[in-house]
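User: Can you help me understand a structure? I only have the sequence.
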Amino acid sequence: MQFDSLKYLVSGVLVASLAACGGGGSAGSAAMNPTPQSVNVPLMVSDAASEDWATVGVRILSVALIPQGGGSDVTVYTAPTPAPVTNLVQLDNLADLIGNPAVPAGTYTGAIITVSANPGDVSLIASSSPAAGFAGAAGQPIAASAIQVQGASGASGSLAVPIKVTFESPITIAAGQTTPVDLEFDLSHPAFIVGHQPPAAGGATLWAVDFDGPVRHHPVRDIAGLVLRHLYGTVTAVATDNKSFTVMKDLPTYPVVSPEVPVTTAQSLTIQADATNGTVFYDVDGRTSSTIKDFSSVATLLGTEKYVRVAARYQADGSLVAVRVWASSSFDSIWLSPEGHVRHVDTTADVITIDDENGRPVRLTVDQNTQFFVRNPGNGAADMTPVGKGTGFLSANHLVRGFKIHATPVDKTATPLVAQSVDIETAVYSGTISNPGMTQFTYTRMFPNPLDDYQVTLPYISSTTPNGKDANGTVIDGFKWWNFAYPTLADTGSGAITDFVNATGSAGVNFGGLYGNAKAFGVSYASWGDQANTSGWAANIAVLMPLNLPLGIVTSPYANGEFGMSLIGNTGGNAVTVDVSTTPGSATLVYQVDRSGGIVSVTSQDITTNGGLTALTSGLGANAAVKVWGVPEANGHLKAYVIAYFTGLLPIL
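Assistant: Let's start by predicting it. Here is the structure, written out as tokens:
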């Protein structure tokens, strides 16, 4: 039995805003009721990272907003035919623009996202280096026949899953303001991708994909702080004042072909030059670069080398500004720029390995001329200035497994590929937390390949560093943290660090035997060049993650909010107590997993109701197989965030 492991921050954004973000889909037609006033709303999708997957591909068919007070849903995005594939793995805390429709002004309480669910519409490709115990073969696709999408409805050939998401609070769209709408596809959610391995030798693993639960609303407080995925386009015009150019957004062909060819969309985007800090412009064919503050010097070239890749950021008013632009007469030349999560860093050979979208490892050599950038859209000057150069950046452990990068080779035809530049889009450190203090704490991370292991001590960002906004729009200063399940309940302010130290300094949960002690596990997105560490990384947030425990067995049946469990195969081990919450709004998430007749079904049980609690009590009888994700408590218990119990054919033990 294998669940997609909980190792990274919640992200995964489908954002509609009055002038906001960037895209793994394409602009389609916008069908809506006529209204006296409409506002253009850029529509985005993003997601969290996964250690196990190179591709989690979905086809978004449509997005509709639900008006407050009733009335017909307002469709704001309809995909072209065939609907493009969005690879959620590439969108680790990044926003990706899929449309820019006009939305009727008004107040909306939720959204309905419809995804295609025919065989082959959801694609899964394992990473080249998945976590230990992963049920799939490294670097290999999962057969369409082994992927079962939960909740699909419709006729054969037109199967789809409508996903209803209720906004945390109603959002109002009105002219003259920016109102992001953030809907998360949470790739790290335990119930999103469930791999069920039967006990019989040679039995087929079936993978259930469940959109009920992993998609939810998450507020975006500051649109100008969003990191956008690089976008591709065909240049259609340069403005007469040379301050901007216009592109029709392009998508790569999927599955990937060689050479890669573009799929042109109907989405037009205007990209401005950074007149203050400058835009770095790369002539890929001519192998030159320059910093420009308007496009006058490259206007002719943009008419010839018409394909561009753009690292852009949003202004508060919704305009797109180019940080870096790559231009070529060949789409393949700008597309062949390795993008993905770092799987290995070889500091001896100075080689970074990342996965392509087919799960194949791509090796990229770093030399003395390689420049490293850290995406920082909130600071235009920092966003376009390299933070390091050459092999020393690797030897200093400033790049580790799990970072999301987008690199550009000096020559895409060369062997080996040599990196001209590396954009660090998300810097993610994670692991067991130790030595938490008032100025810093330590992450220790272990991987299947010991060469990827690291131990890093991160300072907290300065108490005066702006760090997002709260629900009232007030700027938060300094370090903040929260429990994975409750991102809206972030601990901020002068007491945040003290609370974090108290929460992570306990001895953990002791299973004894081979498994031993389970301590607090966290994930941090790090910032470069903060006052607390001007030439390195500092933690601006930390999220305490539920531990992804091995399959267990119930030793004491569920009663009065708790049960006992031990870990299967943990020789010499002991049982621990698992606490279960039935409080509405913070209840433990419970899933019943059944495999029978070649079908895997995942059913959510609402244990705040009598029926759900009865099902849980029945499912957690003595000797039942159970999978738990939980956070260690100071009393030595495990606080359950997610519980999966099994009926029918049990998973492999």
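Now, to help you interpret it: Residues 223 and 493 are 22 Å apart (CA to CA). The first strand starts at residue 2 and ends at 3. Let me know which part you'd like to focus on.
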